[in-house]
Amino acid sequence: MVSLAQLRDSDLSGLLPAATAYDTLATNFGKHVQTMQHEVLKHVLNANWVGNAAGAANASLQRTSNRLDAAHTEMSAVSGLLREASESFLLAQSKLKAALQEAQNLGLTVAEDGTVSWPAPSKAERNDPEYNVPQQARALANRISGAVTEAGNADQKIAGLLNSLTERARNGTGLDTDKAAADLKAVTQQGVDLMAAGFPPAGASPTEVNSWWKGLTPDEQQRLIEAHPDLLGMRDGIPAAARDQANRLNLAHLITKYQQKPNLTDDEKQKLEGFLAISKRLEADKDKQPPRFLLGVSEEGQGRGILSFGNPDTAKNVSAYVPGLGTTLGAVGGKDGDRALNVWNAAHNADPNAEVASMVWLGYDPPPGLEKLADGDTRPLEVMDADRAAKGGAAYDKFMAGLRATHDGSPAHLVALAHSYGSTTVGLGAQMSGGTGADDVILVGSPGTGAAKASQLHIDPGHVWVGDAENDPVSHLPSKGRVANDIQGATGGFLAGPVGSLVGGYVADKMYDWFGPEDQLWFGQDPASKGFGANRFAVADGPELSFDSHSDYMTDPNDSTSKTLESVNNIGQIVAGKYDHVTRQDHR
């Protein structure tokens, strides 16, 4: 087993050079194998030599070539294992040293067995409700124990693999091509496990992840980005620049993976289209300002994508926009990316002297678009419940905590911005323990947040802002109780009620006239109502008998022909913290 002292004091600097040396050995040996195959075996086999001697010679040469090829594979396995050992031990050691440094900074004492102790609290500290040294000590003790355990597990696995490879070299069984290939596969798979063990656990907070990351040297950070971009790109607490680099590498990998995958399903085709759309946008925008940062991309669920215009780690004003119903991964590189850029322009116009970062966050699975109902896909009906929003809200809260953890200098002015079903996602997230951590919450085109009052969103109600166009049908969806009769006997449930009307067009002069003036929406209190207690900012009524009324909240602020500029300009003023410049509107 590995002890705390061994992990803390070990000089691991020789492991990577050893791996590099073995890489060189394997590469040079591989050249000899190629010479054998192309210069010796090829000429003998093509020499038209026949007879018993020729047959025996050919068979012997083929066996020799196979053994050399197997030996080369075994060398590659050793070099790969040494490299993974270097990175795994360095990660565990960095994690330990970061925890030990935090303990020292807090005045705590760490014994050689990992026990953490602290001075007896003063009288003032005993009476201070904010005094939490025992909790901090327990958390640090767990981190220290975890790092030592991870190093011990890695040591055991690496030793086992090295012993196996050594034994194969000693008894000659490693010269069998099938066994050598199996050894290389075992090492490759084990390497993934060892590297994952060196990362903070899945439940670690973004602050803990950020502390671990800062404990790595720049070279270690770069090696991790290049070797395991998939483990870093979506990890909250990793700085934006590192996430961007990792995600661009992973994006290229995902595109190749899906392009080479046979018989793609419709959902897989949609993911591939999304990956390609994001890649195309990054390429088209590579020389534009503000710089683009790909803060997330993955194949999880319906696909994940987080694109930022500007660096959220250095910006003074930061907004994270959550789209809603029917949003696909391709929209991150398309219309929802455009909306995030429009918010950036509006906030920059509101305060040209402040650095801005505006992003689109698709870190959850919104219900698919209603048009899929025509294909027999019932998933769009999940818009009726809040399960997807609740899961998304928890992920969004963690993402926002990550933005806080990685920000440089003074804390940013952080704004949660959400549209449509995304406002339900943000609203539910805001009601969870700790909330979104935002300084302002902006809800547009909202069917409700699940809250009866703005004060339930873990934020001063004076910093909750609502924009709802009078002709936006979604912001007039009735309460569940009011449509109970519509559901009765309706094929497909809610499809025959309001959603059926949305799909087929308005069957009344105005959808909201049919619904009536009640201030209860499908997901609770109408955020634009006086009873909710938020600020309502001015937006244009929007065109009647058109879903454009639900989609125009973030129109380009530089488009002088737009009739909906008031909305995005107000959003920009809020993001910039220029509250006195926001045009208000009466509550419903």
Number of strands: 12
How far the N terminus sits from the C terminus, by CA atoms, comes to 67 Å
Low-confidence stretches: 479-517
Number of helices: 19
Kindly state the mean pLDDT as a whole number?
83
Radius of gyration: 30 Å
Furnish the topology, listing elements before pairings.
Elements: H1 4-9, H2 15-45, H3 52-105, E1 109-110, E2 116-117, H4 123-126, H5 133-171, H6 177-198, H7 206-214, H8 218-227, H9 229-232, H10 240-260, H11 266-284, E3 292-298, E4 304-309, E5 317-322, H12 329-332, H13 335-350, E6 356-362, H14 387-406, E7 413-419, H15 421-430, E8 440-444, E9 464-467, H16 484-487, H17 498-504, H18 511-515, E10 520-521, E11 524-525, E12 535-536, H19 565-575
Parallel strand pairs: 5-6, 5-7, 7-8, 8-9, 9-12
Antiparallel strand pairs: 1-2, 3-4, 4-6, 10-11
Helix pairs in contact: 2-3, 3-5, 3-6, 3-7, 5-6, 8-10, 10-11, 13-19, 14-15
Q: In words, what does this structure look like?
A:
The protein is α/β, with parallel strands linked by helices and 588 residues long. The chain folds into 2 domains: 4-198, Up-down Bundle (Ferritin), CATH 1.20.1260; 240-581, 3-Layer(aba) Sandwich (Rossmann fold). It is 50% helix and 9% strand. The chain has 19 helices and 12 strands. It has helices spanning 4-9, 15-45, 52-105, 123-126, 133-171, 177-198, 206-214, 218-227, 229-232, 240-260, 266-284, 329-332, 335-350, 387-406, 421-430, 484-487, 498-504, 511-515, 565-575, and strands at residues 109-110, 116-117, 292-298, 304-309, 317-322, 356-362, 413-419, 440-444, 464-467, 520-521, 524-525, 535-536. Helix 15 (421-430) links the parallel strand 7 (413-419) and strand 8 (440-444). Helix 3 packs antiparallel against helix 5 (133-171), helix 3 packs across helix 7 (206-214) and helix 8 (218-227) packs parallel to helix 10 (240-260). It is globular, with a radius of gyration of 30 Å.
